[in-house]
Amino acid sequence: MLGMRLLVELADEWKQLTFQLGAARCTRTREKWQAKLTVEFHAIEKGLSLGAPRLGFGEKRILQLIEDLRSYRDRFSDPAFLAHPIATVRGYIAFNKDRGFEPALVTKALRRLESEQPAPVAADIHGGVKPVRKMDLLSGGCEFERFALTRHSIRDFSTDVVTREEIMRAIGIAQSSPSSCNRQSWHAHVFQGMAKDELLRFQGGSNGFVEAVGAAVVVVGDLRNYFINEIHQPYIDASLFAMTMMFAFHGQGMGSIPLTTSFKRRRLREFRKRFGIPDYQVPVMILGVGHLKEEFNVACSARNDVLKIVTFHQVVGV
Ligand SMILES: Cc1cc2nc3c(=O)[nH]c(=O)nc-3n(C[C@H](O)[C@H](O)[C@H](O)COP(=O)(O)O)c2cc1C
After folding, report:
1. Which residue spans within 243-318 are E strands per DSSP?
2. 50, 202, 259: which to mutate for ligand 1, most atoms within 8 A of CB?
3. Digit-coded pLDDT (tens) for 251-310
4. I need a labelling partner for 86 at 20 to 30 A (CA). Which of 134, 177, 217, 267 fits?
5. Of 132, 128, 130, 127, whose CA–CA distance to 250 is shortest?
6. SS3 287
């Protein structure tokens, strides 16, 4: 009976995903194509925010990105969106040049793309990385806006050891997160030392900074706490827990990097087996954590205009 009811729930979802997911006819829909391009140009920002990026890294991928930006521009125009990827490639070129390396092919391709733009991308749109000083992050203080705005994903940590106490304190604070019916259906699997390295290597999204991360926390939701209409609720509750944990580390003057656990099915099975995650738990994300260097770079990760993501509704007829 339960199996049948679940099938009906999932059939509906299957239908929605088949048409609406970003992977479906990606280049026909502006939003889907933007998402794909954003993943690509964010990879450049991430690369630049490592401790010691390899000069000229990712040339082939960046040239492809420039080609894709051209195709997108030909289809949608949209200079406002294009400004950020273009500024990011500019940031990449400047970063390399400052260190004595000329990424000639990328420079040429970008110049060509820019010359075709109806209007130049303003010089004050900054892309790539921005430098951060530890003292500025620490002065986040109690004012929430400033506190939130000084949290960044960090990919370049100091070598200071992350202690069990620091991790437990952050997890304890994260326990204050809201959850549906206060079920608190989350769990934290902590990995340190070589186990942490193995976990992060398996995850794959922290290539280039595995050793820099001090400890890793796999945040999971617990399916056993939810009913038939709630199959996504464990992801929501555990993500709120993870977000509070990120703020808790930030509040302790430490840094964190959320890392995806969106594995394909076979890989997920392997992940569970290798790292001891039982079937009743769903991984939501891994948090890499560590101490801050005095100065380091973070990816710009520009945000969309708030107007783009807000709709005020009125009840019709009132
Ligand atoms: C669920 C989730 C998964 C992520 N996975 C990765 C990852 O695998 N590798 C990585 O370098 N960054 C990852 N990130 C970090 C994002 O790139 C970052 O949060 C985003 O660019 C915004 O930047 P900010 O966190 O500095 O504000 C992830 C973030 C989230 C929320």
Report:
1. 254-260, 281-291, 295-299
2. 259
3. 999 999 999 999 999 999 999 999 999 999 999 999 999 999 999 999 999 999 999 999
4. 134
5. 132
6. strand
Instruction: Answer for the pair 106, 67: CB distance below 8 angstroms, yes or no.
Output: no
Measured in residues, the chain has a length of 318
What is the model's pLDDT at position 15? Answer: 87
Task: Name the residue with tokens 């991928």.
Answer: 61
Residue position matching structure tokens 């993501």: 309
* Residue stretches of the chain with pLDDT short of 50: none
Quickly tell me which residue has 């200079």 as its tokens. 79
CA angle 250, 232, 178 (to 5 degrees): 40
Alpha-carbon distance 195 to 277, whole Å?
14
> Distance between alpha carbon 134 and the CA centroid of its chain, in Å?
21
Give me ligand 1 centre to Cα 80, in Å.
23
**Which two structure tokens, joined as six digits, stand for 194?**
């070589």
Tokens matching residue 240: 């709120």
Is the Cβ–Cβ distance between 218 and 260 less than 8 Å? no
Enter the CATH code of domain 131-299. 3.40.109.10
